[in-house]
Amino acid sequence: MSFPFLPRAVAKRKPTNVSAAKVNTPLGSVPTTSQPNASSKGKEKAPEGPSAEECAFLVSLALSEYALWEDPDLRMKLDEDDGYISTHHLLFHCQVLAPLRKVPQTVLVKHLKTHLAGTLDFRMMVAEPKPWFNRSGEASSQQPGGLGGYEMRLKAPSTSIVVLSKLDWEKRMVYVENVPIQYRNITALVKFLLALLPAHHELPVFSRIQNVYLPPHHQDKPGDLPTFKGFALVTFRREPDAQCVLKSWPWQPDPSEPKLGHASGSTEGEAASDARKFGFRATGKATWEALRVEYLVYRQQLVEEINAFQDSSASKSATIHTTTTASNEPPVTTRMEPSLKVQKQPKVPTDSSQNKVITLSSPYPYGCLLFIKNIHHETNKTTLKVFFGKALANASGGIDYVDFNKGMDTCYLRVSTPPSAQLLSDQFTSNVIVQTNGLDDTGSSILSSKQKDVKPIVVEVVSGRREEMYWQKVPERISRGAVEKAVKLQCKAGAGDKEEDGGERQPGGDNRPKKRRKR
Question: Where is the composition biased (Polar residues) (predicted)?
Answer without folding.
Answer: 26-40, 317-331
